[in-house]
């Protein structure tokens, strides 16, 4: 599957990713949402 994602304008295509890191206090989870048009972060959350 070709994964070539293009957006012609803002808010047309959003992508997200989640990652986690083990710390001394437990697991830290980070989720980020990006607008593909300008690659700007739309939102994020840490828990």
Folded structure, characterized:
GO terms for molecular function: nucleic acid binding. It holds the Pfam family rve. This is Integrase catalytic domain-containing protein. InterPro entries: Integrase_cat-core, RNaseH-like_sf, RNaseH_sf, Transposase_IS3/IS150/IS904. Residues 9-47 form the Integrase catalytic domain. This protein has one domain (14-46). It has strands at 14-23, 26-35, 40-46. It is elongated and about 45 Å long. It has a three-stranded antiparallel β-sheet with strand order 1-2-3, with no helix packed on it. The model has no long low-confidence stretch (mean pLDDT 92). 0% of the residues lie in helices and 57% in strands. It has 47 residues and is mostly beta strands.
Note the topology.
Elements lengths: L13 E10 L2 E10 L4 E7 L1
Antiparallel strand pairs: 1-2, 2-3
Organism: Flavobacterium crocinum
Protein name: Integrase catalytic domain-containing protein
GO molecular function, one term: nucleic acid binding
